[in-house]
């Protein structure tokens, strides 16, 4: 199943947008681990992984920048991306982020 591109549906896009700063703080500890999970779920492709890795390794970059890049890419990964993002958050034990987006799932 190939990666699909395109903006998330409005409701999902708005959930991420309204929690953006908090989500960056929640996922900054291992954005590449989360990105690999999104790759496993066919949300991200090799190019997306490379963009996040580059941001993390950039001289002035940091894990927060990589986490922000991950969210920026995610916002344009199509209609199936959000549910797989929720699965990836759960897989990687990002329970605070999961609770922010889907309080009823915890």
From TrEMBL:
It comes from the Eukaryota. One of its GO terms (biological process) is regulation of apoptotic process. InterPro entries: CARD, DEATH-like_dom_sf. Coiled coil: none annotated. It holds the Pfam family CARD. SUPFAM superfamilies: DEATH domain (SSF47986). Residues 8-91 form the CARD domain. CDD domains: CARD (cd01671). This is CARD domain-containing protein. It comes from Patella caerulea (Rayed Mediterranean limpet).
